[in-house]
């Protein structure tokens, strides 16, 4: 998908790679897989941000996408994708479609991507962006990510892009043996930790703390006290 912003994307990839080197001692990944970097070079991030943010689209920063939500920083998108070790045949679940950008990155790596978004308006907008760009194979659903997507499980990789206070049980269940889950865990208003979970052959879970992060909260749709996001719907 070469376009007039290809050079900006290349610079963004350089910045992401530099940050990977700088954080490698914590993350364990000082060099990201070339396939992950290639995905960042291909996906037009400017198509996923509001008009007012188009000029900022290739900064290595999180940006507002409306409804108090954000599109994650490119480095974080790359890191989560890297940690999920997505292979071509993998079945991949994303929780928190948001703009659809992370889903597009995943679709560059696998033909079997599922993504769930709680807020109907964001979900619909992401669906139309992804369709316009030709990412037709991504399965999208409006719903509660705490439930996962049981009909499509088990998943080889699960990427959660909103922060739950603890790891949702349904998502652990829907992880395949050998499957990886990357999830920012922490109570709202506190520091969160990006965790990498791997399901072992005996069903147990091995967990590693990767790096401190700041994500929007993963909302429980039935919790009225929790968020302004639900009230807006
Ligand atoms: N991955 C997105 C960024 C996500 S921001 C991107 O690439 O743009 C986090 C998203 O998670 C928001 O859109 C928010 O509405 C959504 N979210 C919050 N709680 C959720 C839940 N319980 N189930 C599904 N999505 C949820």
UniProtKB/TrEMBL annotation:
A Pfam family matched in the record: PCMT
TM stretches of this protein: none
Source organism, top-level taxon: Bacteria
Matches recorded under PROSITE patterns: PCMT
The EC number(s) this enzyme carries: 2.1.1.77
UniProt keyword list: Cytoplasm, Methyltransferase, S-adenosyl-L-methionine, Transferase
Matches recorded under CDD domains: AdoMet_MTases (cd02440)
Reaction catalyzed: [protein]-L-isoaspartate + S-adenosyl-L-methionine = [protein]-L-isoaspartate alpha-methyl ester + S-adenosyl-L-homocysteine
Subcellular localization, as worded in the UniProt entry: Cytoplasm
CC terms in the record's Gene Ontology section: cytoplasm
Keyword RNA-binding: no
Family: Belongs to the methyltransferase superfamily. L-isoaspartyl/D-aspartyl protein methyltransferase family.
Entry protein name: Protein-L-isoaspartate O-methyltransferase
Organism field: Methylohalomonas lacus
